[in-house]
Amino acid sequence: MDRFTAMEAFVRVVESGTFTKAADALGRPKTAVTRLIQQLEAQLRVKLLHRTTRRVTVTPEGMTYYHQALRLLGEVRELEATLSQSRRGPRGRLRVESSGTISRLLLVPALPSFYARYPQMHIELGVSDRVVDLLADNVDCAIRGGGVKDESLVARHLGDLCYWLCASPRYVERHGAPGHPRELAGPTHAVVSYFSSLSGKELPFVFLRDGERLEVQGRSLLTLNETNAYLAAGLAGLGVMFAPRFVVEPYVATGELVQVLEDWRPEARPLFLVYPPARPRGAGPRVFIEWTMELFASRPDLWRHEG
């Protein structure tokens, strides 16, 4: 007896409710399916099904065996699919979520190298700063900044993004450069504030110097929750901004922004690649996850504060 063939026949009988329908689904004679189940019961020395002329019911032992058989057959099919993909390369659709700036400045420019390796993959990239429910929205993986509080997700640490404190030259001409972080909460200066789409709270500016950690809730005229709009507000001179180095460094190089409070180091913020533990099955999600880890590991400038 082929144990896997018998196991599949048993699962079909349970799911269809009759030997006749199971035989039709398997493309086998009804007598062959009946014989497989009898052999399986004899091998296991347990009654799996109760049969009458009208219906088939599953015994308690049969229901336990059904769930385990279903899991095992699924793993075998997944293994076969993975080996098949390894011969012809991964293919299929992949749903990814990422913020606007990371998508625009890091992820999308690097995607040609991903497609050069995996030309049969298709990525659906959701671009937003909001925190999506990966399971409810059927998302395979997401790139997220800050701590990951959802313990149901696998979180792989990409690094700790360094931040720069900047303002436009027009702002500095009008208000001067702040001499101390606490001045950002006073009447002279204003900050461009960012609020969490998850909690709705404004994020404070956090500074480090010589072992001291200082948290400041700046006086803001404008609060946003999307990084591209946040950058536009800083460029427009609406206040001092606190943004990842890779976002603002090109504008500092052209003089559109200037660094302020350079003797205080803004606190780095962790960046994670997160995904549900049962979601990345098959070669497609796995190769994208590993490619993303490689991409961020190849960019040490993201994690360094020095210019």
From TrEMBL:
GO terms for molecular function: DNA-binding transcription factor activity; sequence-specific DNA binding. GO terms for biological process: DNA-templated transcription. Pfam families: HTH_1, LysR_substrate. InterPro entries: LysR-type_TF_proteobact-type (IPR058163), LysR_HTH_N (IPR000847), LysR_subst-bd (IPR005119), WH-like_DNA-bd_sf (IPR036388), WH_DNA-bd_sf (IPR036390). Keywords: DNA-binding, Transcription, Transcription regulation. The keyword DNA-binding applies. It comes from the Bacteria. Residues 1-59 form the HTH lysR-type domain. CDD domains: PBP2_CrgA_like_3. Belongs to the LysR transcriptional regulatory family. This is LysR family transcriptional regulator. It comes from Myxococcus llanfairpwllgwyngyllgogerychwyrndrobwllllantysiliogogogochensis. The lineage of its organism: Bacteria, Pseudomonadati, Myxococcota, Myxococcia, Myxococcales.
